[in-house]
Specification:
- The protein has 13 helices and no strands.
- The chain is globular, with a radius of gyration of 19 Å.
- The chain has one domain.
- It is mainly α.
- The mean pLDDT is 94.
- Helix 1 packs parallel to helix 3 and helix 11 runs parallel beside helix 13.
């Protein structure tokens, strides 16, 4: 097995890109610069430790660094990405949608907006967080070979996706073009809860590619291969989740297309890694 796994190259490339950009724009003393440099050092240290102590416990520590890093750097992007790439790319993303359709789907779906639909799509959208959390926990406490493949796929996806956020920062139709929507998204308590979660949790540039679509598609595909019952449980909610990203005005169509493509790549990387592992009978 190579010293570095695929996700370590890709997520490491994201951390290096941001560390370099922040070093040039904000300087070495900047908290964000130091945070990304610290991530690179921790990742490298865990790789070195695993090389010296090739034990299951050390491997799990090395692999589970990435869920922690993903959550930390997702929030840091709120201030780190504007320092490296201050422009917003919403107009360009909308123009791509307009090459494919009359306009971005969020505007085209506005005649279909009703309170009950908004409540239903808010429910599907908010399911992303428990699906991701339960999936990481489920595979983390299971077979190490499968965990290694899962981590390779999921965090290769996050590494590429975070690079997309950094290179193509955008807020989504609801932030970039609020004046063009004439029908408000009114619903019940789930709609209100979802709005609070998105308002508090979004970093403001998390649009391209759609990681809600990419991650949920990857989880669905990985479950199809390794946890078939979970696949059937989450299939319909995931379709609802994908549609909700457009209905709720969070994403452009091009975000979803790239999200599905990214999930396909991540599944291929995960299965390639799994094929390399020797699974005990």
């Amino acid at each position: 097995m190579s010293a570095l796994l695929t996700h370590e190259w890709l997520f490491g490339a994201y951390m290096l890109f941001m560390a370099t950009g922040l070093l040039l724009t904000s300087g070495l003393a900047d908290a964000n610069t130091l945070s990304y440099m610290a991530g690179l050092l921790i990742a490298g240290g865990l790789i070195a430790l695993t090389t010296r102590r090739d034990t299951p416990a050390m491997w799990r520590t090395r692999l589970l660094f990435y869920p922690l890093a993903m959550n930390v750097y997702f929030q840091l992007m709120r201030s780190a990405v504007p320092a490296v790439h201050p422009a917003r790319m919403d107009t360009a993303l909308r123009q791509i949608d307009q090459w494919l359709l009359p306009d971005t789907p969020s505007l085209l779906l506005e005649p279909l907006v009703t309170p009950w639909a908004t409540e239903a799509f808010s429910f599907f959208y908010i399911l992303f967080l428990p699906y991701l959390a339960f999936s990481v926990i489920n595979y983390a406490i299971g077979d190490l070979h499968r965990l290694r493949a899962f981590t390779v796929g999921l965090f290769s996806l996050y590494g590429i996706g975070f690079l997309g956020y950094a290179l193509v920062p955008a807020g989504g139709p609801y932030l970039a073009f609020p004046q063009e929507f004439t029908v408000p998204l009114l619903g019940g308590p789930i709609t209100q809860w979802n709005a609070v979660v998105v308002g508090a949790g979004s970093n403001g540039i998390d649009v391209f590619p759609s990681l809600h679509v990419a991650v949920s598609s990857f989880l669905l595909g990985f479950d199809f291969r390794h946890r078939r019952r979970r696949f059937w449980v989450y299939l319909v909610p995931c379709v609802g989740l994908w549609l909700s990203t457009l209905y709720l005005r969070y994403h452009y169509l091009v975000d979803l297309l790239f999200g599905f493509a990214l999930a396909t790549l991540a599944l291929w990387l995960a299965e390639r890694q799994f094929a390399r592992e020797r699974i005990p009978a």
